[in-house]
Amino acid sequence: MIEQDLIGWTIGFDLDGTRVETHEDLIGTLNRMLATKGLPACPVEGARDLIGAGATALLVHGFVRAGASTEDARDPALLEAFLADYIAHIADHSRPFEGVVETLERLAARGATLVVVTNKRSDLSELLLGKIDLTRHFAAIVGPDRVSARKPAGAHFIEAVTSVGGDPVRAIMVGDAEPDVGTARDAGVPVIGVTFGYTPTPMEKLEPDVIVDAFEDVEEAVDMLVVDHYVLKAMAV
After folding, report:
1. Of 6, 10, 155, 157, whose CB has the highest number of CB atoms within 10 Å?
2. pLDDT tens across 161-187, in order?
3. Residues in contact with 219: Cβ distance below 8 Å, sequence separation at least 6, in sequence order
């Protein structure tokens, strides 16, 4: 496929499960919180589907899975302890997926503006991305605390795009789970779904515009969507 000029295009990327393999550190912190309450640990690999909706949701789902009540999981002191522990271990095992760095560099070199659109709190996202040397690729890191509504609300994506000077009419979302696809649909923008992330629902069932099985395929998917954009624009003239 011929590479398109990406100047003027903004690409919004989810974080956990899309660009960075974070589940081991997140579930490690969850399990330490469960241990403080005398509850059984969640198997690390078997708990990937708990991730993606934020710390409180992770605690609620993790505690329920361990046989505790949602009331126990929503204790503000527990959330505070969770965040303190996670900060201390945020990049013990977390690493970019294969092909992430190279793909981000190519997209930026072609003129695209890259922005992080995540339900992870902004300061935690900045800390993680700084520790694994990914911050430099992004014009902004936009967590739910920096917008009027969190994913799956389209406002999260639209406000993230406009915060870096982008136009939502020429923007694409990349994510691994239902909140990402839902955000794109609500914002009226195309979405690329990756299959290797943290979704309890298979990506095929979420029906994004393009599905990729490896991050290195994101660039080609972007090109496909950009071509479609210009074709549709030409047809409308």
Report:
1. 157
2. 999 999 999 999 999 999 999 999 999
3. 103, 106, 107
pLDDT tens digits for 90-139?
999 999 999 999 999 999 999 999 999 999 999 999 999 999 999 999 99
> Which of 84, 164, 152, 162 has its CA nearest to residue 124?
84
Active-site amino acid positions: 14
Minimal CA–CA distance to 180: which of 19, 28, 48? 19
What are the two backbone dihedrals, phi and then psi, of residue 101, each rounded to the nearest 5 degrees?
Answer: -60, -50
Cα separation of 204 and 130, whole Å? 32
pLDDT in tens, 41-71: 988 777 777 776 778 888 998 898 888 888 8
pTM metric for this prediction: 0.91
